[in-house]
Design a protein that fits this description.
Blueprint (H helix, E strand, L loop, with lengths): L2 H11 L4 H17 L4 H5 L2 H13 L12 E12 L2 E12 L3 E5 L6 H9 L6 E6 L3 E4 L11 H11 L4 H14 L15 H13 L5 E5 L7 H16 L3 E5 L11 E4 L4
Parallel strand pairs: 3-7, 3-8, 5-6, 6-7
Antiparallel strand pairs: 1-2, 1-4
Helix pairs in contact: 1-2, 1-4, 6-7
Length: 266
């Protein structure tokens, strides 16, 4: 019996309805495939990971915290077309400080395009976008220069935000430590693994302490421990009054958010 089959069987044995167990298994298998890693190497024994996942899902998504703050992102009737084809239309979303929103949907439905519109990097063809001035954007691919070290990235991105080099480097090292990563002084970005390079992207997105964070599947290449650390950090941003919008395709991520925008339903 394969790892996914044993994982699904364990979920059912633990009381998960079969349709949901099947979706969680497909979701988990897709994550392993994206990392080009065997599920056993990424998640460990299927019976233990099934229990771990159910324990995470049992935690209330929204714990007692301060009331939501001011609106930091607002989309009203937003639409986008490519070559006369509507990618999406009439998108409405409001995210306040202290809230997390997830954007979900099938591949090709425009999730990354919508996030770029939120960041001001792509213009919508219709509707209105309002956002706070301080925005951090973490793309799914790219965002780093292969020939620069992590410290050089921190210095460069810090300079763009008006942060002096020494403070930018110390802040970058502190944020990296939250993701269990200590950058090597002479290691260039092109020498980093995919998961570590994505950690660098996350640090750069937060380096200037933005009020709104826009994250496009930011956990690509993460192992399970780093994935959990990532969501802890998202909760810390939320508790600090920041707004977070994260593009995801993982079903169990939706227990961690306040709003879900499903582009696949349009």
């Amino acid at each position: 019996m394969t790892w996914p089959m044993r994982f699904q069987a364990e979920l059912v044995r633990l009381g998960v309805p079969e349709p949901r167990a099947r979706r969680l298994t497909e979701d988990t298998s897709a994550q392993a495939a994206e990392n080009a890693t065997d599920p056993a190497d990424l998640f460990g024994p299927p019976h233990l990971y099934a229990r771990h996942l159910l324990a995470e899902l049992a935690v209330p998504a929204v714990t007692e915290r301060h009331p939501a703050g001011p609106v930091l992102l607002s989309l009203a009737g937003v639409g986008k077309r490519f070559r006369r084809r509507a990618v999406f239309h009439n998108i409405n979303l409001t995210v306040r400080g202290g809230e997390v929103a997830a954007v979900v949907g099938a591949n090709g439905c425009g999730k990354s395009t919508l996030l770029r519109i939120c960041a001001g990097l792509t213009r919508p063809d219709s509707g209105e976008v309002r956002r706070t001035r301080r925005v951090g954007y973490v793309p799914q691919d790219g965002g780093t220069a292969g020939w620069l070290t992590a410290d050089e990235h921190f210095t460069l991105f810090g300079a763009a935000a008006g942060v002096v080099p020494r403070r930018a480097r110390s802040t970058g090292a502190h944020l990296a430590a939250r993701l269990a990563w200590r950058p090597e002084p002479d290691q260039r970005a092109q020498q980093l693994s995919g998961g570590t390079r994505q950690k660098l992207n996350l640090v750069l997105g937060e380096l200037h302490a933005p009020d709104l964070l826009l994250l496009d599947e930011p956990y690509q290449g993460f192992d399970q421990g780093t994935y959990v650390d990532f969501w802890r950090q998202v909760h810390a941003w939320r508790d600090a009054g920041r707004a977070v919008v994260v593009v995801t395709h993982l079903l169990h991520d939706l227990t961690n958010v306040d709003h879900v925008l499903d582009l696949g339903e349009r």
